[in-house]
Recover the amino acids of this structure.
């Protein structure tokens, strides 16, 4: 186990999964997954397309209905609506398929939705999308949108989220962007789960697991 | 050609004008909600539910408009669980629509009312506007903009993406419930103005036109109300002057303007790239 280079945030939350199974109808996308992450640990998840990585992250956020098993963030399970609302405020999410949305939303509005406008806007500047604040998300490129969602997640961390779930956060980025984002995630003083196919990102994480046909197996 | 001044002295014309102006405040905003939630089939089903409400009113002797409003409101609320996925809603709407019409026909035959009478109500006419209709629209003209002002951030997120809203602390289920009830009630009250088949003129056309020029939710809301006023009041005056039926005239004016806006190159948003919808 490794601890992150910077001091640990007081918010850093442990993540515990036990026997988590997710179905899409008759398909078992995630199959009896167990995982224990201490506060501040960073885990990279690799694995072939369709092996269930995104579904697993969405289940932690309560966005996947057909889920069974135990999911604890910060030692707490989620049952009712209020629990899930708290869970989602404790977990920052960089979705794999960032939506450009059906309806116009300005980049500034997206950044504000993370709960800490100042930090998100500063992060947007650092990530090179700071001058696009008044643009509708639908007019951003894939890479710009990905940076925008990452900036939002950094705002969520500043607002108190103790766990970051990043789903292929560098997939649409140029080489420089991949390195930059890997460095930004590595420095986060909270617990991080990052799905990635990027070698540099994997190497920056203390723990590595591989997902295959819904099963999660730790490999480093 | 008619003289506008003389026509505007007629009480029913004045009442119709008031109704249209009030409707132009609330209904285009509702149209923006409909477009944003992607629930066009819902509003279509609501027209049929409104017919059932009118039929129940005729059977029981209660006010048909009130029955339509209440039934639509209840149905809208009951649809909330289906709104978790857009396909869930549109799939169920065909069923709801057919069931509502079948039930309406059954109720009508039980009540011994000529079915044409009910359909006439559903057809509506602006010049037959009653003070009760104006009251319903006045309430909407206050409630709908207020809902927007108080829940601006949450609405922008929900209309953009339901999951993003969920992950941003928006009470998505409750807001969806409120929106569906508002949409249902608004449709039911708008039916009296133009008739069920032309309700879209008051709600969807201004919203579709606004989507063309508005780059954010606040801009779209503003534009939709402006377009609503222009289409409705403009269309109404044209119909008075030329002695055309008002409903179809409104719709044609709104439809042509919306079409033109979509056909013209995007002048107001020069940086905007083509967005595939
Ligand atoms: N909405 C859905 N409906 C049905 N099956 C789905 C849906 N989303 C994903 N799946 C299936 O679930 C499996 C896991 O998907 P996903 O978690 O997205 O994989 P990964 O992120 O590892 O590429 C895949 O076989 C995929 O086809
Ligand atoms: Mg995935």
């Amino acid at each position: 186990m490794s601890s992150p280079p910077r001091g640990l945030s007081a918010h850093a939350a442990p993540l515990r999964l036990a026997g988590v199974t997710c179905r899409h109808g008759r398909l078992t996308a995630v199959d009896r997954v167990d995982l224990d992450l201490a506060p501040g640990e960073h885990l990279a998840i690799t694995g072939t397309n369709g092996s269930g990585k995104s579904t697993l992250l969405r289940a932690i956020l309560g966005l996947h209905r057909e889920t069974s098993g135990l999911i604890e963030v910060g030692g707490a399970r989620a049952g009712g609506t209020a629990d899930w609302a708290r869970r989602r405020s404790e977990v920052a999410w960089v979705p794999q398929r960032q939506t450009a949305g059906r309806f116009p939303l300005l980049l500034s509005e997206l950044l504000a939705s993370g709960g800490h406008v100042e930090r998100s806007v500063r992060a947007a500047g650092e990530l090179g999308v700071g001058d696009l604040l008044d643009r509708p998300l639908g007019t951003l490129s894939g890479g710009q949108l990905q940076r925008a969602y990452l900036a939002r997640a950094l705002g969520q961390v500043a607002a108190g989220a103790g766990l970051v779930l990043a789903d292929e956060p560098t997939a649409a980025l140029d080489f420089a962007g991949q390195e930059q984002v890997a460095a930004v995630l590595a420095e986060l003083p909270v617990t991080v789960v990052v799905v990635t196919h990027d070698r540099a990102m994997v190497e920056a994480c203390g723990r590595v697991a591989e997902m295959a046909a819904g099963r999660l197996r730790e490999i480093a | 050609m008619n003289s506008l001044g003389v026509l505007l002295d007629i009480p029913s014309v004045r009442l119709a004008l008031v109704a249209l102006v009030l409707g132009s405040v609330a209904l285009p905003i509702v149209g923006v909600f409909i477009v944003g939630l992607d629930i066009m089939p819902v509003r279509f089903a609501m027209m049929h539910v409104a017919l059932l409400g009118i039929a129940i009113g005729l059977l029981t002797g209660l006010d048909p408009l009130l029955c339509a409003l209440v039934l639509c409101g209840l149905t809208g609320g009951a649809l909330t669980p289906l709104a978790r996925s857009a396909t869930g809603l549109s799939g169920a709407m065909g069923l709801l629509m057919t069931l509502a019409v079948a039930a309406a026909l059954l109720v009508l035959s039980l009540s011994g009312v000529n079915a044409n009478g009910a359909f006439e109500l559903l057809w509506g006419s602006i010049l037959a506007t009653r003070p009760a209709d104006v009251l319903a629209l006045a309430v909407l003209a206050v409630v709908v903009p207020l809902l927007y002002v108080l829940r601006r951030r949450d609405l922008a997120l929900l209309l953009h993406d339901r999951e993003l809203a969920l992950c941003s602390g928006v009470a998505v289920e409750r807001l969806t419930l409120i929106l569906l009830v508002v949409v249902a009630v608004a449709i039911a009250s708008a039916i009296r103005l133009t008739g069920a088949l032309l309700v879209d003129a008051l709600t969807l056309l201004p919203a579709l036109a606004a989507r063309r020029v508005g780059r954010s939710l606040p801009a779209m809301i503003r534009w939709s109300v402006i377009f609503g006023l222009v289409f409705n009041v403009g269309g109404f005056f044209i119909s008075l002057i030329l002695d055309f039926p008002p409903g179809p005239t409104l719709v044609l004016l709104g439809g042509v303007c919306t079409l033109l806006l979509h056909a013209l190159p995007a002048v107001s948003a020069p940086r905007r790239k083509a967005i595939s919808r």
Remarks:
- The domain at 15-218 of chain A is CATH 3.40.50.300 (Rossmann fold).
- DSSP finds seven helices and nine strands in chain A.
